[in-house]
Recover the amino acids of this structure.
């Protein structure tokens, strides 16, 4: 079975400063994200071993561990690419945001409220609802909980404290405000088109 691997960041650790420090990026990518990759691979091995031996009493727990770690890996992979040193809103996504939310500023205010309101550890996500064909801001708990069926994440903001605590302590709102300066609208617009099958 093919293993999960940790890809390099698409920029230097310090590329997002002063909004996110190089130290946080190094720890976040090389320690936290790497741990999810390791955990996903361990869960796969344990599932294969349990299946081979016919010892399936723990398969429920193993599947939960796999979902948590694969979620952590996939979410971070999107998150890294959702950020860039310089990017401006554009394209079909910008038009869809204006159409659905009234303006980019109104969307940012709404998404910020969603992000601030995440209780504990989780993510704020702008997803493309592939069933109803519209954008949907949602909260995701841990790495995998509360994501409705048919949602394709196109913009993800990590709200676990390890993503910001060294820079912003416990002031999540300051982290979110700073993060808007490094949103990679090119990547998000590309994800939006891909989610629609374009």
């Amino acid at each position: 079975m093919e293993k999960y691997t940790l890809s390099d960041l698409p920029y230097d650790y310090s590329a997002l400063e002063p909004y996110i420090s190089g130290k946080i990026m190094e720890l976040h990518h090389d320690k936290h994200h790497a741990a999810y990759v390791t955990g996903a691979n361990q869960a796969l091995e344990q599932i294969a071993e349990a299946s081979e031996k016919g010892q399936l009493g723990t398969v429920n727990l193993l599947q939960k561990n796999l979902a948590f770690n694969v979620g952590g890996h996939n979410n971070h992979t999107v998150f890294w690419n959702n950020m860039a040193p310089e990017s401006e809103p554009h394209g079909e996504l910008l038009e869809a945001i204006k159409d659905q939310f009234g303006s980019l500023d109104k969307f940012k205010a709404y998404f910020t409220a969603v992000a601030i309101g995440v209780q504990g550890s989780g993510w704020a996500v702008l997803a493309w609802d592939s069933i109803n064909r519209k954008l949907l801001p949602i909260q995701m708990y841990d790495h995998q909980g509360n994501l409705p069926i048919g949602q394709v994440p196109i913009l993800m903001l990590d709200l676990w404290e390890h993503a910001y605590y060294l820079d912003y302590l416990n002031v999540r709102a300051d982290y979110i405000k700073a993060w808007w300066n490094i949103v990679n609208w090119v990547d998000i617009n590309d994800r939006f088109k891909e989610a629609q099958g374009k």
About this structure: DSSP finds seven helices and three strands in the chain. The beta strands are 122-129, 134-141, 151-158.
